[in-house]
Fold:
Amino acid sequence: MLPEERKQIAALNDKLMRTIDIRLVTSSDSRSQTLKAFSGELVENAPKIRMVFENEDGADALPGLHITSSIVYHAVPHGTELLPFLDMLVDISEQSEENPQTGPDRKLQIPVSLKLYVSSMCTFCPAVVRKLLPLALQNTSIRLTVIDGVLFPELADTDHIRSVPTLILDDQFRWTGTVDLNELLNTIQRRDPAQLSAGTLASMISDGNAYQLAEMMLKEGCIFPAFIDLLAHEAFSTRLGAMAAAEEIAERRMSLAVHMAAPLTERFEQQSDAVKGDILYIIGVSGDDRSIDFLGKILTGEYSKDVKEAAADALEEIRSR
Structure:
């Protein structure tokens, strides 16, 4: 860290109205050490900032700075990105701890996933960051992830990032360069809920809103295509939340729930036994006579004992209705 950056952080400490907790999520990923080094400099020069350390296992666990429940940095905010980051911390410190998101009344009915790719050398990125950070602070439904495309090139490659700043909304819409805030908000408000990405729906579940997700599908009268991906997700916590939403739909409107069974059978073979068991459970909850042949083939096929037992339970559930 440059001496000038240390001075900027020290000046921040005097502006903070209260102590700010930042959750540093680390993993076996080597970039965890880069984020730890930045965090150490941050708290050393601004004692009003406290780091809460959390380690996540798994090959896909990415190190990051979780500033609030809706703002995550997969980036080290230095260079041109440092001042917007520090100003955000001042804004957070001025908000109530009991009700941290106190901005204008722009409550969004559909959750929003924003990914902003930046670089510490980019001269245009700070202006876009300054536009978006207040949105995520003021709206509980907006989740903003700031990503350094140089530090996390695999994410940039997956999202086909060619230049920064690039903003991606729900893995569907993107802006490169200047972002018109009104255009962004209008796009957010016009989205079709059925076209929400699996990432956006998974965020709802991780935030404890599985039943809100079920309510959205009941209201729209359709099973969102990305929801099926969650029912076959490799992470058990995501699957569990999706299963709770599926059960809610089945209990309230079986005619809608039945549309989950067929796409789940298409995803069945490539899954682990644990995921197969959960898929079979949902087929039992939501399936009808059209699922019986599929379940029968599992009972007579070369599957593990646990999978066959799950298929037998699902078959019994369908026949009992």
Summary: The chain has 15 helices and eight strands.
